[in-house]
# Entry
Amino acid sequence: MTTIERLWEDFELPIKDALHYADGRSYDVALDSAAPGGFSVLSPFELDEMPEGDPSWVSAVDGLAAADLGGKGLLWGGEGSYGSERFIARLTADRALIWAMFFAESNPFDRIQLSGNVATFSSTSGFEITVDIDDPRAPAPPER
# Structure
């Protein structure tokens, strides 16, 4: 079991602007309103190098919005422990993590709009990010 899977069992994510996959891959991300989708995926990093024994490096997450994908799982978005945090995640049908993205300094996500395999997550402040739910590292497709 990977570090991110162990954290997800307790609905926790690292307090770091990052994209995490259940298989252990992690990437720095940055909110960027000029980038396709509203964010940029940056360099990979090793989650196992973060201080696992320090409880201040993780945030408990709580969902405010969900989109059912039927047999393909669930999209979930919401907030972290500290109110200025937000996250989005794709889960399997039995709620295991596929991938999750966390932002430490922003407003919670409270709406999800789904069109095919493209989801737009909207925050309580009106900020949006758009992702390909099958590959959130891929640039978001142009709006139709």
Summary: The chain has a mean pLDDT of 91. The first helix runs from residue 3 to 9. Helices lie at 3-9. The longest strand covers residues 39-45.
